[in-house]
Amino acid sequence: MYDVIVIGAGWCGLVAAKTYLQACPDSRLLLVDGDSSIGGTWSKERLYPHLVAEAHHGLFEFSDLPMRRDTVLPDGRIPSAAVHDYLTEYATKFDLIDRIRLNTWIENVRREPAVIGDNEAPRWRLTVAGSCEQLPTKKIIIATGLTSEPYMPFLPGRQEFEGEVLHSKALGHPQTGDRISDPSVRHAVVYGGSKSAFDAVYLLLRAGKTVDWVIREQGGGPSMMTPLSILGQPSFRLNNSRLLTLFSPHPFATAAQPSWWQRVMHRRSSRLAQLAVIGFWRILAYLLQRPWKYNQSANGRRLRPLLALDSLFWSPATLGVMTHPELWDDIHSGERVTIYRQAITALGKDKRVILDNGVELSADLVVCATGWHARHTLFKPEEQLAVGLPSAVSFDPKSQSEWINLQRKADQEIIEDMPILQQSPLPSAPFRCEDDYHLYRFIAPSREPPSHERSIAYVGFLRTAGAPIVYEAQSLWATAYLTGALDVPEPSERISEVARTNAWIRRRYICGRKVPFALFDFLPYVDMLYRDLGVNPHRKANMVAEICGLYQPRDFQGVVSEWLASRGVKDIENV
C-alpha cells in the first residue's frame, strides 16, 4: 500500500511529488500516468513540429531548477522538445524517475470505507485500466490538470466519412505525422478557434496542405492572440507583473495592493474609476491587437476577437501568444487558408464537411481543436460531487438548495463589492450548481467526510498565465493540507468562500464559466496560498520592485525550505 499516489506526471504531478517528498522523505509515493513518457501536455507523444511554448525562457521552469539557455531559441522561445527534456531533467534531479509508472491509465478511483482506529487502512483504491490491478493508498493528489481529456464534438455522418477525424491532442502521434506528410492528404479542415487551432493551421500549412479553418459563430469566438513582444519585452511577461493586477478586480486580498487602491478602483468604485480600469485594458488590448491588422483581409476580420478591445479584460475566449507570427501572412493572403465563421453540422461521403450555412468543404483530414472535457471520469458520476468535481448528477435536495442560495448570495456580494463586474457584456447561460468545481483554494474539496479528512487534494485545477509559480504554491499548500500541517476553516466557511470565488470567476472571465480561470490574478492568488502557510509571498527588495518588477519562478527559490524551517523541520534538500 502507498502513502500517497499522484495521478499525472506532467508539470503538476512532478512538482506535487517532489514537494511532498521534500516534506515527507520516507513516504511511499507513486506517480502514475497513462502516457508512455513524462510531461503531460509536453510528453513525447503530444509534441509535433513547430510547437513552441508561449512563455519565454526564465518563465517556464520551476524555482529550483533553471532551464538551460542552450536548449531554447535565440529569441528566448522554448521549443516543445526543450520543455519535455526539462521536465525529464527535473524528475531525474529529484529522484522521481523510479517512482513513476508510465502506460498506467487509471480507470477509476474509489473511496474505501473507513476503518475506525486503523490509520494504516487505505482510504482510496485506484483501478488500472485494462487489468484487474488495484492500487491501494492512504492519500491521492489529482494532478491531471484541466487539459487531459479531449472534447470531441458530435459530428453526424462520421462513420461514412472517408477522411480521418482526430483531436489536436493527437497531432504528436507518429501515425498522425505520417498521415500529415502523406502527399495524398491535400486538404484539411481545422475546427475551433483556440491557440491549439492556430498551431494546427500553422503545422498543416507548413506541411503543404490547403486548410479550411472553421470557427463557430456562437460561443467565445477566436482566441485573442498576443504578439511575441510588446514595447521591447516578451508579451507573456506582462502577466508576471503585479502592475497588471492593480487594474484587475479580484477577491484575493494582498499586502502588495494598498487597501485604499482596492477601495477606490474596485470595491464599491465610482463610475470614473471603472472607466479608468476599462480604459487601461482597452489601451493594452489595442497595443496587443494592432500588429495583426485584422481589417487587411476577409480572413483577418473573421479572426477579430469577439469583444474587440474589451476581449482582453472580459476574456470571452482563452488568450494565446502568437508563437509563429508569420502565420498572419498566410491568413491575409488567403492563398492556402480560408476561414469560415460557421459550425460543422455533419460529415458525409466523399470526404464532405457540411457547414450550417449549407456550404460543403472537401477534407482528407479534420482536426478538432475543440478543447477539453469539463467533466472528470476518474470518479463515478455519483461520487464526483463528494470530491469537489462537477457532475451530471444532482445534489440531494437539501444540499442543492443550500448551494443555490449560497451562489445567489455570493453573486450579489461580488457585484456589490466590485461593481464593474456587473457590466459583463455577454449574458451568462443558465448553470447548475453541480457544474461548478467545489474546491477550497482550488485545491481541497470544500467538505470531505470526517472519516477521510485530508486524504485528497488537487494541483493544476485553476487556469492561469503563471503555471510553474502557481503549481509550486499549490503543491506546497496541498502537502501541508494532506499532512495536517495547515489550519483550514470550518466547512461552512470553506463552502462560503468556494461560492464566492466561483461567482467572481463567472463575472470576471467569460471563458471561466466552463472551468476555473484567474488569468491576470495569479500573483494575488499565490500570495493567499503562501500567507495560509505562513510564508512571505513578497520576494522583492522593496514595494516599487514588488509592484513594477517582473516575477519569475526563481523568485520563489527555497520556499519549501522556508516553510519547513518555520515548522522546525530540517530540509534534507539542503543538508
UniProtKB/TrEMBL annotation:
Transmembrane segments: none annotated. The keyword Flavoprotein applies. Keywords: FAD, Flavoprotein, Oxidoreductase. Signal peptide: none annotated. It comes from the Eukaryota. The keyword Transmembrane helix does not apply. GO terms for molecular function: oxidoreductase activity. This is Cofactor FMO1 FAD enzyme. It comes from Aspergillus bertholletiae.
